Each structure stands twice: as C-alpha cells, then as structure tokens.
Amino acid sequence: MFLTQKRHIALISVSGDPAAEIGQEEAGGQNVYVRQIGEMLASQGWQVDMFTRRNAPEQPMIVQHQPNCRTIRLQAGPAEFIGRDVLFDYLPRFVEAFQSFQRQQKISYSLLHTHYWLSSWVGMELRRQQPSLVQVHTYHSLGAIKYQAISDIPPIGSKRLAVERTCLETVSCTVATSPQEQEHMRSHVSTQGHVQMIPCGTDIERFGHITRAEARQLLGIPQTDKTALYVGRFDPRKGIETLVRAMAQSKLRGQENLRLIIGGGSRPGTCDGIERDRIEAIVHELGMSDMTHFPGRLGPENLHLYYAAADVSVVPSHYEPFGLVPIEAMASCTPVVGSDVGGLQYTVIPEATGLLVPPKDVDGFATAIDRILSNPTWRDQLGQAGRQRVETNFSWQGVASHLGQLYMQLLSEAALKTSSVAEPAPEAPKPVEKKAAVAVA
Ligand code: UDP
Predict the structure, then answer these.
(1) Domain carrying residue 402
(2) Residue 335 in contact with residue 366, Cβ under 8 Å?
(3) Per the domain annotation, does 247 fall within a domain?
(4) Best substitution site from 17, 24, 31, 32 to test ligand 1's pocket, by max atoms within 8 Å of Cβ?
(5) Angle, CA of 279, 280 and 284, to the nearest 5°
(6) Are residues 165 and 95 in the same domain?
(7) Residue 324 Cβ < 6 Å to ligand 1
(8) What is the mean pLDDT of each run of 10 residues along the chain (441 residues)?
(9) Which of 96, 186, 190, 410 has a CA that sits 20 to 30 A from residue 173's CA?
(10) 91 with 168, same domain?
(11) 206 in ligand 1 pocket by Cβ < 6 Å?
C-alpha cells in the first residue's frame, strides 16, 4: 500500500523557535532549517505544525506563517530563555503540553520530525505513549563530535550521548545532512538504525540576484575595499578569533584596503554577548578597529546584500555538521574559505567553489583569504561555480521534496504494518481465550 494523501505532521524543535529572529543566542541554522522546510512542505501539500517552547511572556502562542504552516509555542516551564544544557528537565512538561494541544485541537499527527537531541527525547516519549507514530530525526549537532572539540563538557553530556544513541537505533529514520555527518553517526554513535542523507538547503531566489557593485553601493562599502565576511552566532565553536588573527596577518603581509565584517546579533550579558566582547577585545589589541565592522544581527532586509558585497565569506568553525552560511554565500556568488571539517567538506569544493583549511590554522586561513583577495578573476570563477553547485544540490524546494518522499514512504510502511497486525493472515491460529486476545491487542 502506498499512501497518496499528505497528512498532518508535527515538526518538533523545542530549543530552536522557527519564528524567532535569527542570528542571536542559540538561534541559528536549526531555526532556519525548521522554518524553511516547514513552509516548503506546506506549499507541497502537507499540513505542518511546528512546535517549540515559549521562552518570553510577550511571545504569541501561535504564529501562522502560511495557511497550512504555523509555529506553536508550548508552555513548558517559565516563559524565559533557558539554555540548551539545562532544558532537559522541562521536557516532560513539553510532552504533556503537546498531548493536551493534540486533544484540544482534535488533531492526530501521524508523523513527527524532531530536531536536535532534546526534541528526539520528546519524540521518543510521545512514541512510547502512542506507538503507531512515525518519528524522523535530524540531529543538527552530534554530542559525540561536539564534545571532542571542547574541554568543558556540560553535566548533561552523558545523558545527551545516551539519548542520541537510543534515538539513532529506534526512530523510523534519521536524516543526516551531509555524508560526513552520516559517517560520524556510524563511527561515533551506533551502527544500528536507518539513516538517509538529505542535505540542508538555501533560498536560491533570495540570494544571488544583485551584483557586488550594487550591493556595496547600497551598504556604503567602497568598491576598492577587499572585504572578508563572517556571518553567524557569536560562539567560541565558530572560530571567529581565527578569522580575526588571519586578517591581522594578511594586513602584515601587505594587503591593502582590507575590511572585515563580522555579522551576527548579541544581547549584553548573554553567552554570545560575552564572546562578542572577547572578539572585540582581540580586534582592538591587534590594532584592527578601523578596518573591522560589527553590523549586528543581519536580517531579511540586508543579509543577501552583505553576502553579495563580500569578496570572500569565511567560515572558521571548529565543528560544523552542515553549515548554512557557506551555501548562502555560494548562492550569492561569493567564494568560501572554510574549516576542513564536517559538512563544509561536502558543500565547499576546494579550488572550485572556495578553499578549505584545517580549523584554528591562522596561517592557513590568512593564505587562503589572500589568494582569493589577490585574484578577482579567480574570485568570480569560484563564485559562479558555487552558485551552480547550490542551484543543483541545495535548494529548499528540492530538500523538502526529498523529505516529503521519505515521509510518504515511512507512512506507507507504517500503514502496511498496522493493516497486517489488524488483519491476521488466514493461516494464523485463532486466539483460544478472549483474555489472551485482549492482552495481545
Ligand atoms: N544568520 C542570520 N543573521 C545573522 C546571523 C546568522 O540570518 O545575523 C543566519 C545565517 O544566515 C544562517 C544561520 O543563521 O542561515 C546560521 O546557520 P549555520 O548552519 O551556518 O550555523 P548554526 O547557527 O546552525 O551553528
């Protein structure tokens, strides 16, 4: 039996609100991914509800994005920001709130797509209560890999590793967003469970439709400036310090008219605010304050302009399961210099759409950035090839179609299983006692 009717599905992203402003603390790729696939799946015929946790009292409970796509903010604990490392304790309340929403609205979701390990626990708990549910999971970050790169593993670390393992082994399907992430799951989490590789995507209409010269004019960036751009959250794992030190080296090596733009939001006193202060102090200490700009959070009105205006987009992360920023830059015809890690090894083709350098290698980053800044013709060739690569492989529309096919296949398999349980094969022995039949059901 293959289902043809698209159903009501729930995307669960406890820690990444799809309706949030992107670029601030803990709001990054996961939020963008959930929102984009949610909207795209809805336009492809699914009824999509995206669940997250309400983390500010002024937030509306429901945000309708499109007729068939909305964000639902469930009350689970105080309506305030709670960091991911301490959110686990609130998950049972999230499950209760989800169940009561389902009951009140008389909706029965047939498929859950959970995001990040915290939501995987929610999905597994919902499945325990309702075993017919199909669960698809995307990690967005793997504890087993992340913890290799940091010295201060949080107390919740061992719980996270255990949940990630159970999830991989028991959900209907785990989506890896790059071959590298798939390999990491197998080598560091478990060899059991079903995995399918479906990459992340980007908006190929929004990015790539303005020239460098026009974008610079709109942003007031001199046409002669050699401009390197960072876009993302302020998080030590993102390696912004490597970029700043690399630019200082380029300057020492004689590159002129250098400009460094570090885009991303932060709120004073929060973790990303602390990282931003640290980066600003390094910029100051290296005598780079004149050439470095912090425009703050880049929103829908100007993000595409910054990507288009840059000569090179730099992604110096220590670990990146996929990385939306590199494909956004490539979609904007801007070459990428990135760390030779994770999903960047999949999205960036060295010497064709950008360059890859070992993480934290300041010399290596300086050399790679210099090579691109010194050769505008090559820069443009890399940029064109990047745009083509994104158009072919990484549009949200294509990504959502793949996910939709996967959902249909899993729902069909689940329906088959249910019907074969409901209709025993003719030769199956009849239950002898009524009591036994009840126990089996
Ligand atoms: N972003 C944004 N404005 C900013 C900073 C970041 O819109 O000021 C977006 C960026 O364009 C990308 C996402 O946040 O879509 C970051 O995703 P990525 O996968 O690169 O990193 P993550 O945040 O998941 O670690």
Answers:
(1) 2-201+395-422
(2) no
(3) yes
(4) 32
(5) 120
(6) yes
(7) yes
(8) 72 96 76 96 96 95 96 96 93 98 94 98 97 96 88 91 98 97 96 97 96 98 97 94 97 90 76 88 96 93 97 96 96 98 96 98 98 97 98 95 96 86 46 36 28
(9) 96
(10) yes
(11) no
